[in-house]
Amino acid sequence: MYEELVHPKFLFCPVEYCSSRASPNVHDSEYLQTIGELLHPSINVFWTGSKVVSKNITAKECKDLRDVIKRKPIIWDNLHANDYDQQRLYLGPYLGRDKTVPLQSYLSGAMTNPNCEYTLNIPAIVTLADWANNKAWDASGMASHRKAVKEMLKETHVKSYGVDEAAVKESNKKKDSEEDLLEEDLDIIFQMFWLPHSHGPKIVKLLDDFKFCKDNAVAIVGWKEYEPGDQPDIVDVWIEKASFVNKICKEFFVACDKMTHMNNRDLLFDLNSYLNNVRVILHGCNNYLKWVGLDNCKKPIRHGPSLAGLPGGLAGDLMRLYPVQSEDQYPLKKLVTPTSNAVLILPYKYSAGKQQKELENLFEHELKTFSDFLNLSNQSFLVKQKKPHGPPVIVGMISSWSGEQIKSSDATDLCSKFFGKLFKSSGIAENYSIIVKLFIASPLCLDPDLLDGIFESLEGFDEKQGVVLVASEKNCSLVRFLRQQSFTDLKTDFLISGQELLCKNVQT
Known about the structure:
The chain is an alpha/beta fold. The chain contains 16 helices and eleven strands.
């Protein structure tokens, strides 16, 4: 055909158009070798990189391909393609393509296969052009991103086909200036719909801050009870991060509202369903943080974004059942089970010496203070969190001593002598059966059901008597959590440096 048409500009897409489709690999693929030997050298060959949608494309991998197909490839880039996922849209900059060497040294060209929505492809086209032609191209992509925002802002003013121009002008006269879209409005929208493998910088922070607030929610409950300046540092950090989430929500919601007033209705209609999808779930996340931080979890949450904002039907249900729920789980090397993300409660004997180095790294001086006393403990448990990769990590240790053991001990270490005197003092041995020392390194352990279950498993635990708890006074979140669980300060004249002594009568 190429010969019959007298050598026109001809582009060829091979069946093996990326490394993951090459059998068995690029270097040894008989199919790609045949292209190199038999395909006319003037015919260019498409390539999408290591995968169909590649996060990165390097000069080396293209040069390795060139040696096989006997020509430099044309990148047929699916970076901005969204035809495989109707929930996603890509407005981020052209990134991850090697520019450490001259492009002509390893490519015949580069093309974009962008979003299905024609009106939304200004970012893909503008930033690809910037990558290809700008000698001072910024590898972060942010300079290209700002150019795309400016170009898209111009596009929002273009009236849609078939719309009466006089009517548009009249509508613009009535429009409040506060309804005009600004670059910062499009910036936040673009960052929310960035690229297949990444989010815009603001959205990375949004996700990190929301995760922190969600994981540390127990530390913020009841924070208003503190006097100004007395709250633990984590409260200030939590409020700061929750405020950022709320700020992004407001910016995004304002931008969404402004979009409804723009002249280019085609662009609005193409973008609107994507905006609504994010808006619903973002609103739900923000409301959850307000429920924790402002409402103190007083009224139950009775509705949320599940039905409106998350994927529904068979596809949505399967997505929630799919074993891999985070990029952190890749590469997947072992079976995903219901306990893959579980918290493990494991019997432990400190005197055996195992895992002491990890405990020392977590609890440092506090562990040294109790080291000799821990060797005498009746019972200890390690609390471990399972991770997608690697062994479970220690997030806490709980150790106990019976009152009878402490009173009869003749150990001479500081803690043994202190607690021996404590349990021989008036009102202690009669009311409390055990002492429990909590070493807590993660909010994960601040779970009433988890701690209650451990307490009930401790040797010497007596339901008719109470428990004395020992917790580091520096661990403000733990101490406040225990007080919220009805533990109170132990009434005694005995004090141990750096530790809070709390108690609870189990029957109450």
